[in-house]
Write a structure and sequence with these properties.
Two copies of one chain form a homodimer. In chain A, α5 (98-113) runs parallel beside α12 and α10 packs across α11. Chain A has 356 residues and is of the alpha/beta class. The first copy, chain A, has helices at residues 30-37, 41-49, 56-69, 75-82, 98-113, 127-138, 154-163, 186-199, 216-232, 248-261, 273-286, 319-334; strands spanning 87-92, 117-122, 145-148, 167-172, 180-184, 204-210, 236-242, 267-270, 295-297, 314-316, 343-345, 349-351. The model of chain A is unreliable at 1-25 (pLDDT under 50). Chain A is elongated. Chain A folds into three domains: 13-73, Orthogonal Bundle (434 Repressor (Amino-terminal Domain)), CATH 1.10.260.40; 83-185 and 320-348, 3-Layer(aba) Sandwich (Rossmann fold); 186-316, Rossmann fold (3-Layer(aba) Sandwich). Chain A is 43% helix and 16% strand. Chain A has a six-stranded parallel beta sheet, with helices on both faces. A four-stranded parallel beta sheet of chain A has the order 7-6-8-9. Chain A has a two-stranded antiparallel ribbon with strand order 10-12. The longest helix of chain A is centred in the middle third of the chain and has 17 residues, at 216-232. In chain A, β6 (204-210), α9 and β7 form a beta-alpha-beta unit. Chains A and B meet through α4, α5, β2, α6 and α7 of A and α4, α5, β2, α6 and α7 of B. The structure holds a DNA duplex (16 and 16 nucleotides).
Chain lengths: 356, 356
Amino acid sequence: MLETTPVMDPMSASLRPRESRRGRRTAVTLNHVAAAAQVSPITVSRALNAPEAVSETLRERINAAVEALGYVPNRMAGALASAKTRVIPVIVPSLSNVVFVEVIEGIQETIEAAGYQMLLGSTDYDLDREAALASTLLGWAPPGVLLAGLRHLPRTTTLLKNADVPVVEFMEYGARCIDMNVGLSHVQAGAAMAAHLLARGYRRIGFVGTRMCGDYRARQRYDGMRRHIAEMGGASDVLFEYPGGPGQDVGWHALGDILQTHPDVDALFFANDEMAVGAVLRAQRDGIAVPGRIAIAGFNGLPMSALVTPSLTTITSPRKQIGEQAAAMLLSRIDGRCPPQRRIDVGFVLQPRSST
Amino acid sequence: MLETTPVMDPMSASLRPRESRRGRRTAVTLNHVAAAAQVSPITVSRALNAPEAVSETLRERINAAVEALGYVPNRMAGALASAKTRVIPVIVPSLSNVVFVEVIEGIQETIEAAGYQMLLGSTDYDLDREAALASTLLGWAPPGVLLAGLRHLPRTTTLLKNADVPVVEFMEYGARCIDMNVGLSHVQAGAAMAAHLLARGYRRIGFVGTRMCGDYRARQRYDGMRRHIAEMGGASDVLFEYPGGPGQDVGWHALGDILQTHPDVDALFFANDEMAVGAVLRAQRDGIAVPGRIAIAGFNGLPMSALVTPSLTTITSPRKQIGEQAAAMLLSRIDGRCPPQRRIDVGFVLQPRSST
DNA sequence: CTGAAAGCGCTTACAG
DNA sequence: CTGAAAGCGCTTACAG
């Protein structure tokens, strides 16, 4: 008998949750379980966190009590006491973009397999919100942080550096990162598409995007394209920016608009496949020849790019792999191991198809 | 001077985080801030959580110290002490399905505006994982829980009922819910589409889905369709189930397959728009007349359904609204208010277009 | 293999 | 408006 209170029946009323002294409803705690199993609380803790350290007899008694009382450990108390959380914050600009969702899936699968949980935050392409999110999420004392992009407010960077936990910035690959980095060079991707379009003989090339301030990676693709065109000579570029989210409807309307206002444009590189597919569907409905009258290219390599007629030239990015690698790097550092590389360029593949 | 330690300079070494007695690295805590601002810890806590309760002089001194030390409050300690968390778990079957993402966005916007954060968990359509997730997430002592669907394992239901926090089950509308419910009747939606197809003269109607065990809402649409067809007489149905995720490629392949193996089928109701669009694109490429040779219908009312040629007949579900309403109901209960209704049927709209 | 003590960093009453 | 004491539910050393 470890408790002074006589314990007759593991389910006796005295072991049930009750009002605490401070007047709030208390759930079943470790102590209730300990009393029910007639062991000390530490033994219950061990039976749950390191079962092999407890004798089989006690372990069984404890598990039975856990079951009987419906005990759910309070993670907050555990995390506070041990200074360890198994929750990893993941910060992305948007969830409505399939691309981020696929990266997130890669992250989720990887960290979940290692026993971690994801705390997802979306910034809606707002760097102030990103800073606020980072601050709040760090308040949960996470073992590491995953965040999209390499551009942040100075205070975000400071916060993350001071937090003294591993950080992986994913999506684009670049020279300066807070800690670790996985992604691809969007400037190179833009240049690669420019090279492709020039090689196929297009000379007046438009780039179509939405909210290019926030989505600076699209801007980088445009910059890469523009620079390459300028370097090669003999061709020119135009930038088209439309309001709204980067959906198919924007591509649909953009095609009609551009053909009217800029009839000299002979090729369009869209900021993503969705818009590009929207443009292809519009061309189809209106009987506009693609690529005869105008060529269309996308970015991301979504499955649908291969299904439209004509099939869409695009650049495939290894999205899920980015998520997996980012998570793997983070986990290895959390475990105190040193990842083979601090920065990984996952690259991209240009898929020339019928639309160019 | 409230501390016995003489405090000369707010940034003096003695106020900096140091190794604690238990040997682990300690971050800046409330006590560091209190010492730096020369007030008691409770006052700091108040200045942060209820600024109006603290005099302006102290508030300014405290805020300066917070800034100078880069203090980030430990949410776990706060939550443990106050028995309140501002994190709400959201459990969904999948993130790769746009539909859930839109619901999640509605939830996120609503709860974030109220100062809560979302802890997202994905079950991958596995009820065992759902139970495990629910258990873990409840360990964070959340003020409420949002989860997709009305079908769960008995132990999940028990867990959530015992947790004694408000719960909203969203996506489908049904008679039995744990606590509150927002959604639409998928049986009715299936019946509505069947009625539409019968009215247009189709007599051999196929339903095309993937993983119909897990995605039981698709199954419910099929059941609704099947029942309605049976009731009306004069027509018949077939169920086609394909492996893999419910993407455009599945619709693309399904169309080719079904036309060969079941040439008598004259209309197809797909489990979602993505598959249906895949089928339309396939028909387009192969020159199959839609709806002449075969009619095609989808479900969800995604923007792209309006852009393909022929435009796709579909059923629009108010996805974002489901998220918003689910979150609003939960919040009102968290605040101790009683939501106007415990169950909300958000309904759906059948959009007859050219593909049928 | 098992336990008594102390503490994680905050907040809730209760005083003044 | 401000503070000293106690406690939230767990875990980490330290003993035996």
